[in-house]
């Protein structure tokens, strides 16, 4: 096996045991279900909302298409097709820069949509609560699960307006609209949602139903889940109002009850609580990626919009409505908290670190402990109105947390949806400095032994199993997967440790699962025979490191040493499906990184020994029956120097 070495860099060198395939994509590949052009509409349409398809929506619809043999299949676009075949994903990423800027909705857009929606759908603010399906959601995958959006205190139902395009591709979205003058009680709203949930569950018994609620809506979701333990529900709760007793909104209730006037105090008080969030949202909207002139213009535009549309906010929450909603929040919080013990549904809590309306960060941690199937994602720099912030992508959050499924149980293979160009760009940019610092070079072989720079020697058609060894800390996997996607349009599905997916047996020293969301977003699956079988049978490109953590966290003097099991674990199954096995090696990283404080050193220090043992007890153990070094998979953090 040939390798290339240069000081200060590491170079994955890929050796192919078969020539690159030039045949078209076969029929037996792993495919996502084709896109359906039908969407159910209920009660109220949103034709008055901004529903013009943006270039980003068209772009993402084109590029997210289907996964076949581990490859992202792009559509033909005439003149540029030859260029696209050279590097389709990279070219698509270049287009994303301008499209990302042009697709963003401002605060003015949100207030304008809310104002128009109330005027046209309520006819003066009346009528009962009802569901609507946003037209801008467009087409979606077949068998997409139903997502019911439960709004916060405003009740409009447009809180996901910035998420409609991305969520609408993988969910059937219904939004609850509660008219301004409606006085349905909290329990009445719970029963309305409950009827919809039970009806849809009866019609589609094998399809989960997602309840996405913010603030008050999160309490509604918890109440419905507690009352319907037999229904397959997935809860997505953003800054839940179960912490209302500790909220700064509490003092408003007695104040509103005695105030003789309408908005002179209440609206400014609420705005003072959200000012920091709104200013930061305006800044983010204007600053990211814009020249100075546009930055100043955009910022002033958003600030003017906030002041100009305070009347719209006042129309949404007049004094009587605000008092009613605050009283409902108090009832909702008490009701949901008294029934937390009955909530058995899969739950994802989204907590903002700068929520000035509710103590959401502390509440998220409380719910994480109280609910048995709960995961938490923290957004330290976000405010109360989480879904309206530009850097929050709910579809990507759900996928990264392994919460997206279309059946009773999560299938890591068939339920997986690859990252869109926009999602991949964000992930790639987060590692750009690392890639620049290491300057990775890829080499591959043709069947005749010819060595070429790049990945031209890698087979296109699956199934393919890439088998290699870990360098120190396993950092080589970052440029490896990125370059396969950028250069060959091949998405490699890594086979990884189960600790990246399972809620810990107990809280302790392990980092939160949120740190591994990027790994799951890029298609990694927990190691198991059934998952490997599904990868091979679907003709995917899979990545396997037989040495596991023992190899990645090797000790002093063990550079380039293999720690592979004596028994073949997956090779026999790969051969059963006729998979091409591609061995590869990596050089460079172990040469400029030297281990100076390893596992053996740490085990000699009592408090570090206890730390390592405690860390290892928190996660699922692998290869417990294996003898020798390969069975020693204790978690630890080694010390190294360049």
Automatic annotation (TrEMBL):
One of its GO terms (biological process) is triglyceride biosynthetic process. Transmembrane segments: none annotated. Signal peptide: none annotated. InterPro entries: AB_hydrolase_fold, DAGAT, Hydrolase_4. Residues 71-91 have a biased composition (Basic and acidic residues). Keywords: Acyltransferase, Transferase. SUPFAM superfamilies: alpha/beta-Hydrolases. Belongs to the diacylglycerol acyltransferase family. This is Serine aminopeptidase S33 domain-containing protein. The lineage of its organism: Eukaryota, Viridiplantae, Streptophyta, Embryophyta, Tracheophyta.
């Amino acid at each position: 096996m040939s390798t290339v070495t240069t000081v200060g860099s590491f170079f994955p060198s890929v050796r192919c045991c078969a020539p690159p395939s030039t045949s078209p994509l076969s029929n037996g590949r792993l495919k996502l279900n084709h896109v359906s052009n039908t969407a159910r509409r209920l009660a109220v349409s949103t034709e008055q909302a901004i529903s013009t398809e943006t270039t980003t929506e068209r772009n993402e619809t084109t590029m997210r298409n289907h996964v076949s043999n581990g490859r992202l299949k792009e559509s033909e676009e005439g003149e540029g097709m030859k260029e696209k075949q050279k590097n389709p994903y990279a070219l698509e990423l270049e287009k994303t820069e301008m499209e990302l800027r042009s697709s963003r909705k401002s605060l003015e857009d949100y207030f304008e949509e809310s104002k128009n929606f109330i005027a046209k759908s309520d006819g003066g603010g009346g009528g009962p609560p009802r569901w609507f399906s946003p037209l801008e959601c467009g087409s979606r995958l077949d068998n997409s699960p139903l997502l019911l959006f439960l709004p916060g205190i405003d009740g409009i139902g447009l809180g996901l307006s910035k998420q409609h395009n991305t969520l609408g591709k993988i969910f059937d979205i219904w939004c609850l609209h509660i008219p301004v003058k409606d006085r349905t009680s909290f329990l009445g709203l719970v029963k309305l949602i409950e009827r919809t949930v039970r009806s849809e569950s009866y019609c589609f018994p094998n399809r989960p139903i997602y309840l996405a609620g913010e603030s008050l809506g999160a309490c509604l979701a918890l109440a419905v889940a507690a009352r319907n333990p037999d229904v397959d529900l997935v809860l997505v709760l953003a800054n839940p109002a179960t912490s209302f007793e500790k909220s700064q909104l509490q003092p408003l209730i007695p104040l509103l009850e005695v105030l003789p006037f309408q908005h002179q105090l209440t609206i400014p008080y609420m705005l003072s609580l959200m000012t920091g969030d709104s200013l930061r949202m305006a800044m983010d909207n204007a600053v990211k990626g814009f020249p100075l002139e546009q930055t100043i213009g955009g910022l002033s535009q958003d600030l003017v919009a906030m002041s100009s549309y305070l009347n719209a906010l006042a129309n949404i929450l007049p004094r009587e409505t605000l008092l009613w909603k605050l009283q409902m929040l108090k009832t909702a919080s008490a009701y949901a908290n008294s029934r937390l013990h009955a909530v058995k549904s899969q739950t994802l809590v989204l907590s903002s670190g700068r929520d000035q309306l509710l103590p959401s960060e502390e509440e998220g941690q409380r719910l994480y402990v109280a609910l048995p199937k709960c995961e938490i994602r923290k957004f330290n720099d976000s405010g109360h109105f989480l879904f309206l912030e530009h850097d929050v992508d709910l579809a990507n959050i759900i996928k990264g947390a392994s919460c997206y499924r279309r059946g009773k149980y999560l299938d890591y293979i068939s339920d997986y949806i690859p990252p869109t160009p926009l999602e991949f760009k964000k992930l790639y940019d987060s590692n750009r400095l690392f890639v620049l610092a290491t300057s990775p070079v890829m080499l591959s072989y043709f069947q005749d032994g010819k060595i070429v720079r790049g990945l031209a020697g890698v087979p296109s058609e699956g199934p393919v199993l890439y088998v290699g060894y870990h360098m120190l800390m396993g950092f080589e996997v970052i440029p490896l997967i990125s370059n396969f996607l950028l250069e060959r349009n091949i998405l490699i599905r890594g086979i990884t440790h189960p600790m990246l997916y399972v809620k810990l047996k107990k809280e302790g020293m392990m980092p939160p699962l949120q740190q591994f969301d990027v790994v799951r977003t890029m298609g990694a699956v927990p190691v198991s025979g059934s998952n490997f079988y599904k990868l091979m049978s679907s003709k995917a490109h899979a990545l396997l490191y037989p040495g596991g953590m023992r190899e990645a966290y090797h000790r002093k003097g063990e550079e380039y040493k293999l720690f592979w099991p004596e028994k073949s674990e997956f090779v026999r199954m790969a051969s059963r499906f006729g998979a091409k096995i591609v061995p590869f090696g990596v050089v460079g990283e172990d040469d400029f990184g030297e281990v100076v404080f390893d596992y053996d050193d740490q085990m000699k220090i009592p408090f570090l020994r206890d730390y390592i043992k405690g860390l290892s007890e928190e996660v699922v153990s692998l290869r417990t029956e294996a003898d020798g070094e390969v069975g020693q998979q204790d978690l630890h953090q080694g010390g190294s120097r360049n």
